[in-house]
What does this fold into?
Amino acid sequence: MPAVKDPYKTLGVAKNASDDEIKKAYRKLARENHPDRNPGDAAAEERFKDVQGAYDILSDPEKRKAYDSGGGIFGGGGGFDPGAFRGNFGGFGDILSDLFGGAGGRAGGGPARPERGRDLETDVHVSFEQAMEGAQVPVSVPLSAPCPTCHGTGAKPGTTPTVCSLCQGRGVEAESQGLFSISQPCRQCGGTGTEIKDPCPTCQGTGRTRQVKRYRVNIPAGVRDGSRVRLSGKGEAGPRGGPAGDLYVVTRVGESPIFTRKGDNLEVEVPITIPEAIRGATIEVPTLSGTKRIRVPPGTQHGTVQRLRGEGPPKLGGRGRGDIRYRLAIDVPSSLSREQSEAVDDLAAVMDGNPREGLLSRRA
It folds into this structure.
């Protein structure tokens, strides 16, 4: 697999860019170059892959630190080969186990465990209605998938990988230094435990190629902005036939012109007239499926909250539904006709008392 370009230049960010700046730049470029927005544009698809590869590095603190410090895994030129990175360090837990005599070491000389591929994350935009009702939406993801030529083995068709002759399949080699034995990845197989004498011409022995996979994702009813839907086994393929990671689809929910999401519930501001607030009334209010009528009691104050239980968004996991809360706002006209003004004067003449009297008396 060829090394990706300088990730900072690819995303157009400074080397001291914050995580939020990196994520913002990635989302902008991913949207601009997404295959669904540029059908048939091979250059845009290639840029999309570059942007994904750059974000893979800069979104991972350890990979970013390793990139910034340079070193052999980057080939000395700033490029980064994710396969090489995982090949050199994927067996680190086994190295520690060998070093301290843990049970997880491959002391018996058996073959190295297949390394699991990396998890991926992508955004999907859904409307408010789709979030409330659930939907099936298309998603395109650039990722490392099993090589179609060698089917992930890394070996040329007709050949198979062999057990590493140096480490005998353990993936590590130990060097005695006095009282201690220091283990490190096998220099011959890179820690995989196997050798490929005749590598696949398509993937050069990595067992993976960059591809754009297209899925249809079932978005459950009730998702919020930022909810994560997990697609098991749809992430990066593991090197040399290792199991794939998972794909996490993050939902970005559009706004509703009526409802505001508040946790498990929805809120709506409902205007009522002054007579309705004073005398009480039965009014019609919106719901997710149409309208319903609620009772406004006499003497209702501005900001009073009424609710319809179980009429809100579905709760994830099938735990029922939330509520819809209606915040009643008394609608005060900004101007009055002569008839309305006379009616207000008549009302003021018969209304007794000063509502501020108690407040002023406490001040005294």
Notes: DSSP finds ten helices and 15 strands in the chain. The two ends are 82 Å apart (CA to CA).
